């Protein structure tokens, strides 16, 4: 997706970070508007109607979670959270408050841009693809079938529900709770042990048989959730 004409709201009170993000985004073709706190961020979002937001978790008048909640009251714009390594609980809270993804500080510029552009592509309106190609898999969302090189892979109803959810949000980090709510319902919202068991079974069936044993399609974000690599 072209960045031309897209405006990104940058929310961070560290001037060096804001300066670096402005340069990075400008060179990639984005326009930027910057805020140093929660209230200013929400005011500028309402004024400028940005296409996406990059939000630090630690702010002088609140947190990035507050920004996510405020934006989600009226907007579905993609939100990318910047997080320090040791703030796992806050990252989960931000994702549950409406953030779409996170990048850990210190961040790699190429990774941040790739994550942002992926979020913008997914936010673009489009009808759901009947068959989605993921790696060497063909996932027939409507027909509830998965195949590799024309050979069907048999999944249970729960396994297919997990895969379908991950495919629909491919590239995006989904929290444990989001997956449990989507596939099992509210009664299982805290049952992470069940989720891990089914993810392990799904991996055994769909991961490419390359002999390494390392998951390539479904990545674990420790303590947070899972991401299907697009």
TrEMBL record:
Entry-annotated residues carrying 4-aspartylphosphate: 56
Domain Response regulatory residue range list: 7-120
Top-rank taxon: Bacteria
Cellular compartments per GO CC: cytosol; protein-DNA complex
Subcellular location: Cytoplasm
Keywords of the record: Cytoplasm, DNA-binding, Phosphoprotein, Transcription, Transcription regulation, Two-component regulatory system
Positions of the DNA-binding region: 129-230
Alphabetical list of Pfam families matching this protein: Response_reg, Trans_reg_C
Molecular function GO terms recorded: cis-regulatory region sequence-specific DNA binding; identical protein binding; phosphorelay response regulator activity
PANTHER family tied to this protein: KDP OPERON TRANSCRIPTIONAL REGULATORY PROTEIN KDPE, REGULATOR OF RPOS
Record-given protein name: DNA-binding response regulator KdpE
């Amino acid at each position: 997706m072209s960045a031309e004409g897209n405006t990104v709201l940058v929310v961070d009170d560290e001037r060096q970070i804001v300066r670096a993000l402005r340069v990075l985004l400008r060179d990639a073709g984005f326009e930027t508007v910057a805020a140093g706190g929660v209230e200013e961020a929400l005011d500028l979002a309402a004024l400028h109607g940005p296409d996406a937001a990059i939000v630090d978790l630690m702010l002088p008048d609140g947190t990035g979670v507050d920004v996510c909640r405020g934006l989600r009251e009226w907007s579905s714009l993609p939100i990318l959270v910047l997080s320090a390594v040791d703030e796992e609980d806050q990252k989960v809270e931000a994702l549950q408050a409406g953030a779409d993804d996170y990048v850990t500080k210190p961040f790699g510029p190429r990774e941040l841009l790739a994550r942002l552009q992926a979020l913008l592509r997914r936010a673009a309106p489009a009808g759901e693809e009947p068959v989605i190609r993921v790696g060497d898999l063909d996932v027939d969302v409507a027909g509830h079938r998965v195949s590799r090189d024309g050979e069907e892979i048999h999944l249970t109803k729960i396994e297919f529900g997990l895969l379908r959810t991950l495919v629909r949000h491919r590239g995006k980090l989904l929290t444990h709770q989001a997956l449990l709510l989507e596939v099992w319902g509210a009664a299982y919202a805290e049952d992470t042990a069940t989720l891990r068991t089914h993810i392990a079974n799904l991996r055994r069936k769909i991961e490419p048989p390359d002999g390494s044993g390392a998951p390539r399609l479904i990545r674990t974000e420790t303590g947070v959730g899972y991401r299907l690599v697009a």
